[in-house]
Amino acid sequence: MRAVAANRPASGFTLIELVITVAILGVLAMLAVPMLQATAQRQKEVELRSALREIRTAIDAYHQAVLDKKIKVAQDASGYPPDLDSLSKGVPDSLRPDDRLIYFLRRLPRDPFHADPETPAAETWGVRSYASAPDEPQPGDDVFDVYSLSVKKGLNGVPYREW
User: Fold this and answer.
1) Judging by beta carbons within 10 Å of its beta carbon (0-12, 13-18, 19+), is residue 127 exposed, middle or buried?
2) What's 150's DSSP letter?
3) SS3 at position 25
4) Residues 6 or more apart in contact with residue 138 via CB below 8 angstroms
């Protein structure tokens, strides 16, 4: 009975074959991780571009509503929103007798690169007032522009603050 078993070819993998297979899988995993990280960063960059465009469009719409006399502001005011929250919480429409609110955003988007998810959306953005210089944005009495507070650089090499 032992002679029959000795003539049968051995089945299974050798230790060398298993080690080579595991090494190849390890190399492939090392190559895939940076690609997955770049994909995740690229997705956040798409969200950042979209959020910046949405907020900036709402700021411009607010300013246009001031120019159209739909929103009452002080004579010496710039005509830009006093804060980011007023874009989503609404402001009274001065042309309507019932003071119905005008909304410029359904909700204020968050900066996707902000680390703390508990921070209110308005606090995840840096704001530039109308009176501040473009190369050194400072907050003030109004919101003329927004920027990311992230210190990271984008895949294109430009810091997110400058987008």
Assistant:
1) buried
2) -
3) helix
4) 128, 129, 132
Cα separation values, 19 from 1, 11, 13, 33, 123, Å: 34, 17, 10, 21, 52
**pTM score > 0.70 for this model?**
yes
- For the chain, give the number of residues: 163
Quick one: tokens of 73? 């502001």
User: pLDDT tens digit string along 83-115?
Assistant: 999 999 999 999 888 879 999 999 999 999 998
Phi, psi for residue 90 in degrees, rounded to 5:
95, 155
Question: Locate tokens 């690229």: which residue?
Answer: 42
State the Cα–Cα distance between residues 118 and 136, nearest whole angstrom: 28
What does DSSP assign to residue 75? T
Q: Is-contact 140 154, C-beta < 8 A?
A: no
Which residues have CB under 8 Å from 42's CB, separation 6+?
155
Q: Which amino acid is at 44?
A: K
SS3 content of the chain, % helix, strand, coil (to 5): 45, 10, 50
